[in-house]
């Protein structure tokens, strides 16, 4: 683990009207982190990553390292839940990925040959080159999620945040996504929200349990006793050596689909 964090949360809280979503959160994220965020529905997982990104109001203090800053804002790639994206919007795959460079170029500046090469290169590396001119409304869930990931990383952020990235995708793409994230984790810190410990435990390096309060567990293996100690009411079940959660069965496990 790096000696100093790239993001540091101290006594952070978030409220929605009279509802407390997060309180007294203390959390450090390091440059070599691959963190899986778990917790019960409504426990504050998405709220936590939105606070880290600075896109919702919060109390307390969040500090970013100099290497994470670009101008006055932290440079963070973000992959939202796919259900929040409007597939009817008339835009091509290439244009979606290109829009990830907007912060670099500004709203009114055009894109040059260098930016177009960067987009074509990342589409090639993610097996999307043949779809570059396809309208996003024509893509499968897995293809769209891959496009949105390209958009999130095209500007080469030092931190990538993903909110339930495998929702609405099939098993094949889920495996491809995790393989890609494994390689990306050598270049940037990754924070990924998930509902399924069994699925993410093979790829993340540490786990953060969120249920209004936050507890960091510096391992990708966690027991039911540890979950109880973290006040994270997720029950683990096991099929052989594969841990699961009651919130989502492992898609490739035959025991979950009898």
Features:
six-stranded mixed beta sheet; 258 residues; three-stranded antiparallel beta sheet; 8 helices; disordered C terminus; single chain; alpha/beta; Rossmann fold
Could you describe the 3D structure shown?
This protein is an alpha/beta fold and 258 residues long. The protein has one domain: P-loop containing nucleotide triphosphate hydrolases (Rossmann fold, 3-Layer(aba) Sandwich), CATH 3.40.50.300. The chain is built from eight helices and 13 strands. It has helices at 45-53, 93-98, 102-105, 113-125, 141-153, 171-184, 197-200, 224-229; strands spanning 7-16, 19-29, 34-38, 59-64, 69-70, 73-74, 76-79, 159-163, 189-193, 206-211, 213-217, 236-239, 242-245. The strands form four sheets. Strands 7-8-9-3-10-11 form a six-stranded mixed sheet, with helices on both faces. The chain is globular. Residues 238-258 have low confidence and may be disordered.
